[in-house]
Design goal:
The chain has about 500 residues and is mostly helical. It has 2 domains: about 425 residues, Growth Hormone, Chain: A (Up-down Bundle); about 55 residues. It contains 16 helices and 4 strands. Strands 1-4 form a two-stranded antiparallel ribbon. The protein has a two-stranded antiparallel ribbon with strand order 2-3. Strand 2 and strand 3 form a beta hairpin. The chain starts with a strand and ends with a strand.
Length: about 500
């Protein structure tokens, strides 16, 4: 028997929404565990398949595929419901994981990582969107804290598994471990989450917009990663590629303004709140990739620690993140979303400054402490800005807003890792000849440059949080206060589909 979501007063596993929350946490663990496992296994992967200069593509291919599909999945979710899109994401992630485990070359692994990214593009935003649907504004902080705790648990388990697999078994098991998780996540979601059937209408996929955006970002990442290596930065090739990127982006905006169902609706950027939240999310994605993609290289190849020790130091960032995120609700309900995000950006800025000051002989405890500070700051930035943006719209637009925010984060990660790769490769390619492995001094210079760039981006993130509307936001006072006061149970939201009832979940098996 079904009953409205609002009938459950508590946020936890014993409430009516508990099984749904548990299934969302497990689904989120697919993306979280994969991120933390591969970070510490990259040196082993590179040693087996070769190509230090190619390893940024392992992240870029995954993140680019994720970024480009997030807005598509978000629009489909607002039309057909969240559950079918989550199924598609889990299925693609499972297929990509199996193929990655059997990859025979770096090129094959990069392609299969892109397939994983296609699945992650649905899993991560759909988990957050469903949480936004079934919890009120006051409850979402605790619910997001549960979801954020998945990253903390994955931060401990992931690097440990990655180190164990790399040292004692094979790096291929970092992908095979996803197989049972995907199957259990699908089964739990099928049993616990039941949406009311949504009204169907003729749906048009924005093929032209998706193709233009894909082409623009692919050319941009190619230009960043290969510039200064395959061709000089000042060469005609570089200028041509960046010109092509600009033309494609202009064409993309032109197409989106006229598309019946744009892949990235431009109306969301008319809101000061959503635009600022998207900017912050973009920088969050880039900052996280700067630390997680080059932190293991610094710890293992410069400070000469093993994968397990490097995993521990890196884990402290994703431990600090959920701890801060779980407490952010109490803070933003007292002092507001913007003030909470600003405090988080200041804390992250302090940690990033210390990160840039790390030397060639710093202790692993110093690195761990710095990563924890950065993570704590990011936890106070990412969750409040996302919840603030979600609360500014109704059910029928919430998927698009969440998807846009996650898209910009994924785009920031994809482009950010390419920029960091260009900065690092500029030093490595200039100091290494004849295919030799970079020496520790060269790698320290490369990673140090990346950490300085991370500190600069955190400064820009602080400016982004200051651009958020004060208080509860000038963009969404009615919706935020209405949800906070009335809950989510009996309301309907008016959007593209007309009056749409909220999802309902069954108290029994499904």
């Amino acid at each position: 028997m079904s009953r409205p979501i609002a009938s459950a007063a508590s946020v936890g596993f014993r409430s009516d929404r508990g099984p749904v929350l548990a299934s969302l946490m497990l689904a989120t663990s697919l993306v979280a565990l994969d991120s933390t496992i591969i970070a510490t296994a990259v040196p082993s992967v590179v040693a087996d398949l070769s190509g230090f200069d190619q390893f940024p593509w392992l992240f870029s291919a995954y993140l680019l595929a994720q970024a480009l599909t997030v807005p598509v999945y978000a629009k489909l979710a607002d039309t057909f419901g969240r559950k079918p899109i989550m199924y598609v994401g889990i299925g693609l992630f499972l297929a990509g994981s199996v193929l990655c485990g059997f990859a025979w070359s770096m090129t094959a692994l990069i392609v299969f990582r892109a397939l994983q990214g296609l699945g992650a593009g649905a899993v991560q935003p759909m988990s957050m969107t469903i949480a936004g649907d079934i919890y009120t504004v006051a409850e979402r902080a605790k619910a997001q804290g549960y979801l954020a705790s998945v990253w903390g648990m994955s931060a401990v388990i992931g690097p440990l598994l990655g180190g164990v697999f790399s040292e004692y078994v094979s790096w291929r098991w970092i992908f095979f471990v996803n197989i049972p998780l995907c199957l259990v996540a699908w089964w739990m979601l099928r049993r616990s989450f039941h949406e009311t059937q949504q009204p169907r209408r003729t749906h048009r996929i924005d093929v032209a917009g998706a193709a233009l955006l894909t082409a623009a970002l692919t050319v941009l990442i190619l230009a960043l990663l290969e510039g200064g290596q395959a061709w000089a930065w000042s060469s005609m090739t570089s200028w041509t590629m960046f010109t092509v990127v600009a033309v494609l982006l202009v064409a993309f905006v032109f197409v989106e303004r006229r598309a019946p169902e744009p892949v990235l609706p431009l109306w969301v950027f008319r809101s000061r709140l959503i635009t600022a939240a998207a900017l912050v999310s973009l920088l969050v994605g880039a900052i996280v990739m700067g630390v997680t993609s080059y932190g293991p290289t610094y710890l293992q190849d410069v400070l000469h620690h093993g994968p397990l020790a490097a995993g521990f130091a890196l884990a402290t960032m994703t431990i600090g993140w959920p701890i801060a995120a779980s407490q952010s609700g109490r803070l933003y309900l007292r002092i507001g979303f913007r003030a909470t995000a600003v405090i988080g950006a200041v804390i992250a800025g302090g940690g990033a400054t210390l990160l840039a000051l790390l030397g060639a002989h710093s202790s692993i405890w110093q690195v761990a402490a710095v990563c924890f500070i950065v993570g704590a700051g990011m936890g106070l930035v990412a969750s409040p800005t996302l919840i603030f943006a979600q609360s500014s719209v109704g059910w029928s637009e919430r998927g698009v807003v969440t998807g846009t925010t996650m898209f910009t984060r994924s785009m920031g990660s994809a482009v950010g890792v390419a920029v960091f790769g260009a900065l690092a490769n500029a030093i490595v390619s200039g100091a290494v000849t004849g295919g030799q492995a970079p020496d520790p001094v060269t790698l320290f210079q490369a990673t140090h440059r990346v950490f300085v760039a991370v500190a600069v981006l955190v400064g820009l993130m602080l400016l982004g949080t200051l651009a958020l509307p004060a208080g509860r936001g000038e963009d969404a006072p009615a919706d935020v206060e209405r949800i906070a006061d009335q809950g989510t149970g009996s309301r309907t939201e008016t959007g593209d589909l007309g009056a749409i009832p909220e999802p309902r979940l069954a108290s029994g098996d499904g």
